[in-house]
Amino acid sequence: MARIRLGMVGGGNDAFIGAVHRIASRIDDRFELVAGALSSTPEKSRASGEALNLPRVYDDFKQMAIREARLKNGIEAVSIVTPNHVHYAAAREFLKRGIHVICDKPLTSTLADAKRLVKAAEASDALFILTHNYTGYPMIRQARAMIEAGDIGNVRVVQAEYPQDWLTVEQDFKQAEWRTDPARSGAGGSTGDIGTHAFNLACFVTGLEPDSLAADLDAFVAGRQVDDNAHVMLRFKGGAKGMLWSSQVAPGNENALKIRVYGDKGGLEWAQEDPNYLWFTPFGQPKQLITRNGAGAGDAAARLSRVPPGHPEGYLEGFANIYSEAAEAITARREGKEPGPDVVYPTVQDGLRGVQFVDACVRSSARNAAWVSL
Amino acid sequence: MARIRLGMVGGGNDAFIGAVHRIASRIDDRFELVAGALSSTPEKSRASGEALNLPRVYDDFKQMAIREARLKNGIEAVSIVTPNHVHYAAAREFLKRGIHVICDKPLTSTLADAKRLVKAAEASDALFILTHNYTGYPMIRQARAMIEAGDIGNVRVVQAEYPQDWLTVEQDFKQAEWRTDPARSGAGGSTGDIGTHAFNLACFVTGLEPDSLAADLDAFVAGRQVDDNAHVMLRFKGGAKGMLWSSQVAPGNENALKIRVYGDKGGLEWAQEDPNYLWFTPFGQPKQLITRNGAGAGDAAARLSRVPPGHPEGYLEGFANIYSEAAEAITARREGKEPGPDVVYPTVQDGLRGVQFVDACVRSSARNAAWVSL
Amino acid sequence: MARIRLGMVGGGNDAFIGAVHRIASRIDDRFELVAGALSSTPEKSRASGEALNLPRVYDDFKQMAIREARLKNGIEAVSIVTPNHVHYAAAREFLKRGIHVICDKPLTSTLADAKRLVKAAEASDALFILTHNYTGYPMIRQARAMIEAGDIGNVRVVQAEYPQDWLTVEQDFKQAEWRTDPARSGAGGSTGDIGTHAFNLACFVTGLEPDSLAADLDAFVAGRQVDDNAHVMLRFKGGAKGMLWSSQVAPGNENALKIRVYGDKGGLEWAQEDPNYLWFTPFGQPKQLITRNGAGAGDAAARLSRVPPGHPEGYLEGFANIYSEAAEAITARREGKEPGPDVVYPTVQDGLRGVQFVDACVRSSARNAAWVSL
Amino acid sequence: MARIRLGMVGGGNDAFIGAVHRIASRIDDRFELVAGALSSTPEKSRASGEALNLPRVYDDFKQMAIREARLKNGIEAVSIVTPNHVHYAAAREFLKRGIHVICDKPLTSTLADAKRLVKAAEASDALFILTHNYTGYPMIRQARAMIEAGDIGNVRVVQAEYPQDWLTVEQDFKQAEWRTDPARSGAGGSTGDIGTHAFNLACFVTGLEPDSLAADLDAFVAGRQVDDNAHVMLRFKGGAKGMLWSSQVAPGNENALKIRVYGDKGGLEWAQEDPNYLWFTPFGQPKQLITRNGAGAGDAAARLSRVPPGHPEGYLEGFANIYSEAAEAITARREGKEPGPDVVYPTVQDGLRGVQFVDACVRSSARNAAWVSL
C-alpha cells in the first residue's frame, strides 16, 4: 500500500505543533510529507521547507492548494497546523479541491468560522479529521469501549480537568503570544486551548451528549485578554452531571489532563501524564490497574498499540493514532470503500462542538455563570 | 498534669464515630473517659457504658449534664457524637453548665439550630471545639503555614473534592440510614456529611473568606431524599475562585478528600488517603514531596506529629490532634491562661459556616445553581 | 474485662521507642501503665516516671521485678524498650517471676544472649511477645492469609528491602549513637536494626523457613563500626529464593520497608510507607489494589482494623495491633484458656531467628559472602 | 542533510524488535530503510520486504552485504535484529565492508563470539552501535549528567532490577521460544535478555566500572534450560556495591526495569515504566520529582526530547534516541568529523561487557554464587 502524499500548512521552524504532526505522520509509515506552505511569510516558508527536505514548497496555502490539485501525484491530504484563526480559510481551499484535511484543534477561532467550515466539509468529497489527539490514546479507547459495553453501568458523573502552569506569569515567547491573543486564538484562552480537549474527551469517552453549561472564567494574570482559568459545571442529556476545570495558572501541573467517569456499576479514571494506565473499579470490587496491552485491556486499545505492556507509549504515539485512523479512512476512500467499524477519529462536527463549548463558556461567564445551552 | 475528665454523649455499641473519638482522646493520654450517655435508649446506654468500663453511665444527656455539673470531680468536657440533629440540644445542656464541648460535625442539622448553638457557645464560659478532624492532619497544618508564609503567593484557585462510593447503591445499614434522612442529618446529604469537610479545609488551609457559591446537587440513587453528589463553584473574597465536588456515588473512591491550592508563586496538593505527603511546587522549580517530619516540613506539622518521617500517621492521629489541641485549650483555661498561639481548632463559628455552606448549596441548587452569598 | 496492668523498662524522656510503646498500649484500651524503671539512671527514671504520672517508679528493672511480683495488684506484663544489650537481663528477671514480657526487637545484642533468653522464656509460665511491629499491619496479615490460601501459588521469589537514609552522614544524637555502637546494638548495624524486620516479614508473610544466606556488608561512613548497608541473598527451604537489602545510607528513603512475593500463580507487593494498600496480581489478570477494610480485603486484615477503608491507619496502629494480640493472649491466659486461632504475634523463637540472621550476615560477610546456614 | 540509507537483517513479519527498530529509525527522519534480509528463510524475507515496500530485498545477510557494498547508493548502515546467535556472523559481513552496524543486544550468544565481534569492529572503519535502548531515555541521560556533576556525591550503592512476568508459566509462542533456547539466546535467560540491560544501565548511569559479581540463578519453570530469575550481588571498582535482580517470573511486573543510585550527598531513582520522571533527593532536602523537559531537567535530557514537559515520551522515543545518536555519529563520519561531545551510544565494548556479565553470572551460579571477576 503506497504511502499517502501529505502536505502541510503552517508548522515552520520553531513551531511546536507542526513538528508533532510530522512525527505523528511518520511513526506508522502511512504518510509521506511532500509539500508545504509552512509559514505566513514566504521566505520563512521556503527556509523551513528546505530544512525539511520538502520536494515542493509554496508561498502560501492557496497557491499550494491550487497547484497540488493540478498535479498528477499531488498531495492527497493536508495537515493544517497554523494558529486557530487561519484554520477555516486554509481548510476551505483544500476541501473544495477534494484534498483531505487533517486540522489541528480548536476547529476555528470563531463560531461563525466553525459553522462555515462545517458547511465546507459537508460540501466536499474530502475527509475532514480534527486532531483532538487525546482521543488517540489506547487507554482512552479502552475506557470508551468499556463504557459502551456497560462495564460501569449508566454514567452519572464526569469529572474532567486540564490544568497547566505555563501561563502562571506573563510569558512573551511565541507559543504563549498567539494563544493569549483573542484575534488569533479566539475568545477563549484556556477554554479554547485545553478546555476543548477536556470537553471533547468527556463526550468521546462517555458517548454522552452535552446539554448545557455554567462557567466562571478568570484571567488571573494582569492584562491577559483571555481566560487562564475556567470553572465549568456541565449537564448532559439524560441526567448525568459533570465538572470541567481548565487552567493555565496551576503551578505543578504540566499537562495534567485527567478524566474520571462514574456510573452506577463502577468507575474509570485516566490521566494523560501516565497514559498507559486505566484505573477501573467495578463497584464492590478492588480497584484494577489496566495497562495498555496488558491483562484486562481489550481490542480497542490493542489495535492502536505498537509495543507490549510495560513498554510505555506516549503523546506522540497517541497523536500518531489519529494519523493512523486518518490513513485507514483515506486509503478506504481511495478504494471506494468504507473504513472498518473500529476506525474512529474526531470530525468537523466534534470541532464545531468544541467551538460551541468555548462560545458557551464565554457567554455564560459574561452572564454571571448562567446556564447556557450547548 | 492530671488528665481531663471527659464524658460522651452518643457513641454506643456499633457507632462508628464514637469509637473514633474515644481512641482519639486516648492516643496522647490527655483525657480520661469517665461518664457517658451513650445512646438515646437508656438500656443501650447502660449496656454500652458497661462494655466500656465507664464509672458513670446516664440515661440521657440532660441527666448527665445536671449530675456531672454537681459532682466535685465531674467531667470537665464532653464529646458529643450523636446524629447531627441532636447536637444542639445536647451541647446546650453542657455549655450552660460550664462544661467544655467537643462536638462532631456538621454543627447541627438546621441553620436555625446552628445559630442558636453559636449563641449558646458565646454565652458560655466553656470552650466549644468542633471535630473537623481533617484540620488536625500535620500536613494540612504544614500547608496552612506555608500559605500563610507566602510560599505560594496570592491564592488564585482552590480545588477541593471529597468523593466516596459507599452510597453508590441503596444501603440500609445504620450509618447510611441516618445520614440519608434529612430529619436527622439535615437538608444536605453529601454536602453535609463530607462537603462541609472539604469546604472547611479550603477555608482553613488558605485563610480565605468565602463569598458565594453556585451549586448543582443531585440524588442519583432512586428515592434518596438528600444529595449524593454536589458540584459547587466557589468565589472567595478578594477574587480567588474554587470548585468543590462532594460525592458518595463515585466508585473507586473510598474517602478521597483532596485539596489543591494554586497561587501566583506556587502550588500545593494534599490527599487525605496519603496524608503524610504534601506536594509543593514553587513555580519554575521541580515539584517537591514534603513528608511529615521530613526535610522541608516545619514546626506546624512537627508539633502534631509523634513518630519520625516514613512512619505513617493516619486518620486516628489526625483526629487525636484535635483532641490534643482541645486539651491544650482546656488545660490553659484551667489555669486561667490563654493557650499558646500555635493552638488551633475548629470553632462554633466554623461550624456555623459549614451549616451555612449546606444551606447555601441547597438553596442555590433549588434556584438552578444561582449564586448564593455565604 | 479489666485492663492489663503494665510496667515499662526503658523509655525515659526523649526515648523514641518507649513513647511508641506507650501509645500503642493505649490505643485499644487494653493496658494500663502503672509502673516503670524508665532509665538506667535512677534519677532519670524518677523524673520520667513523674512526667508520665506513673503510680510506681523504680530505680532499676530488678528492683521493679522483685517488688511488683510481690504486690497483690502488681504488673501482669512488662514492656522492655531499652537498647538491645539490656533486653536479656531485663527480660529474665520478669520471666522468672511469671510476668509476661513484651520486648522490643532485635531480641538481644548477641547470639549467646538470645539463646539464653529462649531458655528463660521456655522455662517460664509467662508469655513472651516480641514487637516485630510490622507484622501487626493489617495488610501484612492480609498478604499472609492470601499466601496461605494459595492465592499466589507456590512462592518462588521474595524481595525484601528496608532502606533508610538517616545515617548517610555521621550523626551524634542519641538514637544514632547507641544504634551504631556494637556493644549496645550488637554486631549488626542496619542488619540488626532494620534488616531483622525485613527478614522477619519475609518469613512471616510467606510462611517459608529460611535455609541459608550470603551477605555483603559495608560501613560506608568513615569510622562506623557496624554495617550501614547490607546486600543479602537468601535461600529458603523448598527452593524459593530471596534478596534482602537493608541500608541506612540511601538518601530519599525515610523508612522504606517493602516486601514483594512472587509465586507461580501471582504476586503481592506491600510498602510500609503506604501501609493501607496491598497490590495483588493474579497471573494473567490486571493488578488489583486491595485496601485495608476495602473490597477484596478479608478477615485477617479486618480484625486488626479500626476505621473504614480510605481512613488510613499507620505505624502506631500497626504497633498497637501487637499489643492487642498480646492482650488477647494475656487475657486468655488469665482465664486459663488458649487465645483464638487468629491471634498471632512474634515470639522468642522469631527473636532468636532474627539474631541468627544478624549473626549469619556478619559471619558470611567476613567470609567474602560465603553461604551460611540459618 | 540527506537521510542515511539503512538496511535491516532480521525483523520479518511478526518479529517484535524489528518493528521497533523501524519505528525508532523513522521518528526523527534521519534514516531511510531501503534494503533488507528480513528472515533466515528467503521466502519469508521476500514476503516481509514486500509488505514493507522495501526497494531491495535479499535472500540472506551475506548476499545483502556483498551487493549493497557494491552499489553506488548502497546502504550506509544496517540494523541487525535477529536472534542473538546470528549477531556476530551478520555484523562481521557488514563491518568488513565498511557498513555501519546498529545491532540489537545482547551483543552475541557466546563470549567467544563477543570477543570476535569486538575485533571485527575494531578492525573496521565502520561504526558499531549497540541498541541498549534504555540508555536513550532522556531521564537516564539526566541521571547520568547529575551523577557526573556530583549532585549525589560519591556513589555508594546501586540497586538495579528488571522484573517481568511473561515467562511465569511455560510459553510456546515465538518470542518466548528462542529466548529460552540456549543455542539461540546464549547461556543466560533472564540474565541475557534483560539482566544485561539492568547491568548496562547501572554502569552507564553511574560511570562506575564493575569489578566482580556473585550470582544465584534459577529456572523456576519446569524444563526451562536457561535462568528465569537471577539474584546478583555486584562490586564496583572503588568500593561501591550493588544488587541486581532480573526475573521473568514475577507476576505483576510487565517490564519493570528500575534503577536507584545512592551517593554520600543524595539519591536518584528511575523506573522505566514511568520514564518521564526522575526522583532526586539531595540529602537533607525534600524529594524532588524532576520531569522530562520540566523545571530541574537539564540539557542532557532536553537534547533527546521532542515535546514539552507533561507530554509523555515513551519506549519508542527512547529507542529512537539511540538511532538519533547513531545518525549524529554517522553523519559526522560522512563529513570526516567527530560527533559532538554530547553524542553517546552503547558500543561494542559495552556489548562485550554485557556478554561477560552473563558469562560471569552463569559461572558464579555454577560455583554456588562464588565471586567472579568482570
From TrEMBL, chains A, B, C, D:
Protein name listed in UniProt: Gfo/Idh/MocA family oxidoreductase
Xref: Gene3D superfamilies: Dihydrodipicolinate Reductase, domain 2 (3.30.360.10), NAD(P)-binding Rossmann-like Domain (3.40.50.720)
Domain Gfo/Idh/MocA-like oxidoreductase N-terminal: 4-130
Span of domain GFO/IDH/MocA-like oxidoreductase: 140-269
PANTHER family: CONSERVED EXPRESSED OXIDOREDUCTASE (EUROFUNG), OXIDOREDUCTASE
Source species of the chain: Sedimentitalea todarodis
SUPFAM superfamilies for the chain: Glyceraldehyde-3-phosphate dehydrogenase-like, C-terminal domain, NAD(P)-binding Rossmann-fold domains
InterPro entries, A to Z: Gfo/Idh/MocA-like_OxRdtase_N, Gfo/Idh/MocA_oxidoreduct, GFO_IDH_MocA-like_dom, NAD(P)-bd_dom_sf
Top-level division of the source organism's lineage: Bacteria
Annotated TM spans: none
